[in-house]
């Protein structure tokens, strides 16, 4: 178990990639602090992790609300005394061609995908710097690297995370806090289940591995970036995309 005595915050933990990360980190011995707006699912996940012998805290919170993210981080510090890893995973899409994209679709995506990461990171970075230890991993996307029609808002937010992470990485590398992104391609979750079959086929045609990724593929990469093996890796973007973008 590589994360014994470590404490990990995972946002957007109640399903999909976040759930896979939470379960994997708990199996590796971490205490996982789970944040999401879906309170019931979050509490069920925490109970399930605990029933399997893991350590979990359910902290219902909206990442767009800095008062809630600050309170959640304070609750983790009070309960566990430390925060070793932050996985900024909460994210949403509001897809549509740009000509028809509404201002509220732009704002909603920026609020969760970008401001949410600001809020959580702000809440944990000081204790990490003081402890001279930390790992921050944010879920960017292949859309932020290569663009995607109907996702100007989403791609902008995910590209924004790359610039954010590289800048913060430069600021706090000397304090032994690393800041990286993972950039998944098409992963089978609720977010991609809504894609029309024709769009799914178009993606499959350009994925050299000929399949979509699984949440476990992403969780394994996040585990690596939070591990001691990745101690000298910061400011990087790790693609998990079956070769779709290289
Ligand atoms: N699925 C993919 O193909 C894919 C590809 C690239 C990147 N990503 C990114 O990976 C992350 C996880 O995606 P997923 O596919 O598991 O999505 P998902 O929709 O299954 O899960 C997202 C989670 O975020 C939570 N969330 C949404 N708004 C929130 C808020 N304001 N505060 C707290 N939690 C909130 C949701 O309740 C949900 O549990 C996202 O950031 C997504 O952009 C996904």
Task: Name its key features.
Rossmann fold, 7 strands, 9 helices, binds nicotinamide-adenine-dinucleotide, 246 residues, alpha/beta, seven-stranded parallel sheet, single chain
- Can you name the CATH architecture? 3-Layer(aba) Sandwich
Report mean pLDDT, rounded to a whole number. 97
| CATH fold call | Rossmann fold
- The percent range for strand residues is 15-25%
Please report the distance between the alpha carbons of the first and last residues: 32 Å
Notes on the structure:
The protein is an alpha/beta fold. It has a single domain (7-240), classed as 3-Layer(aba) Sandwich (Rossmann fold). It contains 9 helices and 7 strands, in the order βαβαβαβαβααβαααβ. A 7-stranded parallel beta sheet has the order 3-2-1-4-5-6-7, sandwiched between helices. Helix 1 (16-27) crosses helix 9 (215-226), helix 3 (66-80) runs parallel beside helix 4 and helix 4 (103-131) packs parallel to helix 6 (152-172). The model has no long low-confidence stretch (mean pLDDT 97).
């Amino acid at each position: 178990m590589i994360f014994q005595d470590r404490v990990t915050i995972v946002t957007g933990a109640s399903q999909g990639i976040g759930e896979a990360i939470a379960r994997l980190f708990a199996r590796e011995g971490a205490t996982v602090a789970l944040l999401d707006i879906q309170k019931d699912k979050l509490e069920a996940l925490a109970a399930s992790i605990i029933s399997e012998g893991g350590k979990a805290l359910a902290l219902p919170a909206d990442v767009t609300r800095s008062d809630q993210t600050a309170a959640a981080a304070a609750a983790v510090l009070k309960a566990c005394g430390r925060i070793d890893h932050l996985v900024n995973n909460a994210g949403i899409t509001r897809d549509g061609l740009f000509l028809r994209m509404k201002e509220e679709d732009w704002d909603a995506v920026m609020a969760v995908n970008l401001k949410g990461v600001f809020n959580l990171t702000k809440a944990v970075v000081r204790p990490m710097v003081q402890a001279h230890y930390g790992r921050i991993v944010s879920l960017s996307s292949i859309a932020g690297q290569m663009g995607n029609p109907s996702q100007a808002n989403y791609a902008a937010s995910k590209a924004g995370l790359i610039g954010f992470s590289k800048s913060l990485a430069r600021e706090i590398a000397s304090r032994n806090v690393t800041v990286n992104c993972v950039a998944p391609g098409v992963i089978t979750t609720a977010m991609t289940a809504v894609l029309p079959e024709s769009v799914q086929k178009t993606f499959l045609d350009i994925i050299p591995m000929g399949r979509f990724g699984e949440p476990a593929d992403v969780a394994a990469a996040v585990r690596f970036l939070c591990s001691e093996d990745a101690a000298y890796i910061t400011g990087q973007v790790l693609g998990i995309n079956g070769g779709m973008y290289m």
